[in-house]
Amino acid sequence: MIKKADKGFRMDSATLDFLVYTLFGESYCEISRTADGGMDGVLDLCAQRAYRDLGRTLRFYSVDGKDGRKEVETKKKTMLEEAKGSVVDGPRVLLWAESQEKFNCLHKKICGEGSGAEYCWSIAVAAREAPGSDVLKPVRKEEKAFYPGQAQKWLNMILKYFWILDLPQFKGVLRRVE
User: How far is CA 29 from the centre of its chain?
Assistant: First the structure.
């Protein structure tokens, strides 16, 4: 049950577990045990959940037949796994930014491309160049299949989910980033 408290809301552990499980497919306790091994496992879980949000903005080539759909799904999974390295590195770097200015600069480099972007850090570039990305369908005349705005959504959703989990192992990092 969720109850109003002095500063926000309080919820019992069963409600928290239910809500966390509906988002991540794992209980809060399971995620907390993952967090004991470090930040990367939790960021990976957040990246997978955020990909489902991002997936609504991606356009894929359509195919006919069961075999064609299986191939597209396999390529989508491959692309996700390949791009996820850049996606998980981004929040890890951002969480340690010393100031808001540094955070903003790093965020632009991680999400963007061209001027102001770090090619080796760019989620947009990593997603477009990942094996399996040929199933992404270019949108409009720009012939791009993955945009910096989509990278920004993916990154921001990862940070949001990481913040929502509010794991005790990362309290210091979260307080500094808030």
Answer: 21
Rg of the chain taking only CA atoms, in angstroms: 18
> Cα–Cα distance between 39 and 31 in angstroms, integer?
11
pLDDT in tens, the chain (178 residues): 666 677 777 778 888 888 889 999 998 889 999 989 888 889 889 988 988 888 777 777 777 667 777 887 788 788 877 777 777 888 888 888 888 888 888 888 888 765 544 556 678 878 878 887 777 777 665 667 777 888 888 888 988 898 888 888 887 776 666 6
63 and 167 Cβ atoms separated by less than 8 Å = no
Burial 44-68 (b: 16+ CB within 10 A, else e): bbbbbbbbeebeeebeeeeeeeeee
Which pTM was predicted?
A: 0.80
What is the spatial distance between Cα 23 and Cα 17, in angstroms, rounded to a whole number?
10
- Calculate ∠ Cα 74-75-81, nearest 5°: 90
